[in-house]
Amino acid sequence: DVKVTQSSRYLVKRTGEKVFLECVQDMDHENMFWYRQDPGLGLRLIYFSYDVKMKEKGDIPEGYSVSREKKERFSLILESASTNQTSMYLCASSLRRLRKAYSNQPQHFGDGTRLSIL
Amino acid sequence: KQEVTQIPAALSVPEGENLVLNCSFTDSAIYNLQWFRQDPGKGLTSLLLIQSSQREQTSGRLNASLDKSSGRSTLYIAASQPGDSATYLCAAEGVSYNFNKFYFGSGTKLNVKP
């Protein structure tokens, strides 16, 4: 069975700390994504990666960075955590589409990390 | 830019009722349309995926349809049960340059009353 694993379900950090959120997938997917989900705002894309060492900004990249040193692992980094980064963070992965090939393969999500910044 | 809208935002029905959740999108150039379920405090679980060339997909009591020309998808749940209570999200997958990009609706929160 396919699996996207996020390292922590719950995390509490302090303002100004550097925070690392880890995500690992075992499906050999090229694409990996980080979203945050807030009440009333839905899912918003922070960053995504379409290959090792490749990354692209999503809709809300400010205050975040990412790292993809290995295909299976995608890390989200909060450089200096602030209270407005308290949120649910969701990692996802998918196959890269080659034209319409693999368009029947879904995006898979981890269980999420509930991050609180105090 | 693709925009995905889900109506209604919340729905409460008695157990056993058949129901329809709606999803609309503004750009018909999509690879597929995916429906997810999200339980409180959890991640998203994929329910059904309809490729752009397909009209519908079925899994058990769930049936999803896709009409690209009108920019609409529906998720039909037959004989609803309390265990179906969750938030349901739809996502349209498109391509931006060489990347896959997913556009999510804000979800419909379903409550099925025993």
Major β-sheet annotation of chain B: 6 strands, mixed
Residues in helix, % of chain A: under 10%
Query: What class would the helix/strand composition of chain A place it in?
Result: mainly beta
- What is the general shape of chain B? globular
Mean pLDDT across the residues of chain B is 92
Percentage of residues in strands of chain A: over 45%
Oligomer: heterodimer
Please give the alpha-carbon distance between the first and last residues of chain A.
37 Å
Integer average pLDDT of chain A: 91
- Runs of chain A in which pLDDT lies below 50 for 5 or more consecutive residues are none
What is the count of β-strands of chain A?
A: 11
Q: Specify the number of helices of chain B.
A: 0
Categorize the overall geometry of chain A: globular
* Radius of gyration computed on alpha carbons of chain B: 14 Å
Largest sheet of chain A: 7 strands, mixed
Secondary structure category of chain B? mainly beta
Number of strands of chain B: 11
Helix content of chain B: under 10%
Estimated radius of gyration of chain A = 14 Å
What is the CA-CA span between the terminal residues of chain B? 41 Å
The succession of helices and strands of chain B, N to C, reads EEEEEEEEEEE
Secondary-structure map with pairings?
The complex is a heterodimer of chains A (118) and B (114).
Chain A lengths: L3 E3 L3 E4 L5 E7 L5 E8 L3 E10 L2 E4 L6 E7 L2 E6 L8 E8 L13 E2 L3 E5 L1
Parallel strand pairs in A: 2-11
Antiparallel strand pairs in A: 1-3, 3-8, 4-5, 4-9, 5-6, 7-8, 9-10, 9-11
Chain B lengths: L3 E4 L2 E5 L4 E7 L6 E7 L5 E8 L4 E4 L2 E6 L4 E6 L8 E11 L2 E6 L3 E6 L1
Structural overview:
The complex is a heterodimer of chains A (118) and B (114). Chain A is 0% helix and 54% strand. Chain A has strands at residues 4-6, 10-13, 19-25, 31-38, 42-51, 54-57, 64-70, 73-78, 87-94, 108-109, 113-117. In chain A, the strands form two sheets. In chain A, strands 2, 4, 5, 6, 9, 10 and 11 form a seven-stranded mixed β-sheet that branches. In chain A, a hairpin with a 2-residue loop joins strand 7 and strand 8 (73-78). Chain A is globular and about 40 Å long. The termini of chain A are far apart. The mean pLDDT of chain A is 91. With 114 residues, chain B is mainly beta. Chain B is 0% helix and 61% strand. Chain B contains no helices and eleven strands. In chain B, the strands form two sheets. In chain B, strands 2, 4, 5, 9, 10 and 11 form a six-stranded mixed β-sheet that branches. A five-stranded antiparallel β-sheet of chain B has the order 1-3-8-7-6, with no helix packed on it. In chain B, a hairpin with a 4-residue loop joins strand 7 (62-67) and strand 8 (72-77). The relative contact order of chain B is 0.33. The model of chain B has no long low-confidence stretch (mean pLDDT 92). Classes of the chains: A mainly beta (118), B mainly beta (114). The interface between A and B is medium-sized, with 30 and 27 residues.
